């Protein structure tokens, strides 16, 4: 499996883990009654729950962008040095983001998020440059 596909696997895995941890924390602070309810009432609030909810939302947003980029890269076969290193940065970003955000460790959580912010456009540039290498640019 390519590093680009591994980055999708890690992104999806970290999204799943974020959801599981957020739900377990909600079950802990809301109790069994809330966990088994229809959830018509708002969930109990805590600083950690707020951070975990934001982490899940961020992981979802990042996954949507990243997976779309990797699908284009995989369909076109346009991989290269930039897509490789951007994928590696994405893997590191996603692995560190959840614990740093969940525990409120600043500014390192922002640095972890910034890795994605840089990796996505670098990956996109790598895809575009790779298109030229595989002869898919301007009617070639």
Structure commentary:
This protein has 140 residues and is mainly alpha-helical. The protein contains four helices and no strands. Helix 1 packs antiparallel against helix 2 (47-76), helix 1 runs parallel beside helix 3 (81-102) and helix 2 (47-76) runs parallel beside helix 4 (108-133). The protein is elongated and about 60 Å long. The two termini are 28 Å apart. 27% of the residues are buried. The model has no long low-confidence stretch (mean pLDDT 90).
Key terms:
140 residues; single chain; 0% strand; mainly alpha; elongated; 79% helix
> In DSSP terms, counting alpha (H) and pi (I) runs of 4 or more, how many helices?
4
What is the 3D shape?
elongated
- Give the oligomeric state of the chains in this entry, treating copies of one chain as homo and distinct chains as hetero: single chain
Low-confidence stretches: none
SSE topology string? HHHH
> Approximately how much helix is present in the residues?
over 70%
The largest sheet is: none
Intertermini distance: 28 Å
Q: Which radius of gyration do the C-alpha atoms yield? A: 18 Å
Number of DSSP E strands: 0
What's the rounded overall pLDDT mean?
90
Which structural class best describes the helix and strand composition? mainly alpha
Beta content: under 5%
């Amino acid at each position: 499996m390519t590093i680009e596909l591994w980055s999708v696997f890690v992104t999806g895995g970290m999204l799943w883990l974020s959801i599981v941890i957020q739900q377990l924390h909600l079950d802990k602070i809301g109790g069994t009654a809330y966990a088994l309810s229809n959830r018509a009432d708002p969930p109990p609030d805590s600083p950690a729950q707020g951070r975990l909810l934001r982490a899940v939302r961020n992981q979802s947003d990042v996954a949507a962008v990243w997976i779309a980029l990797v699908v284009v890269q995989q369909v076109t076969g346009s991989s290269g040095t930039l897509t490789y290193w951007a994928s590696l940065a994405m893997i590191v970003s996603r692995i560190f983001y959840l614990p740093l955000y969940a525990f409120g460790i600043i500014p390192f959580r922002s640095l972890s998020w910034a890795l994605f912010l840089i990796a996505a456009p670098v990956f996109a540039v790598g895809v575009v440059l790779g298109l030229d290498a595989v002869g898919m640019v301007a009617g070639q």
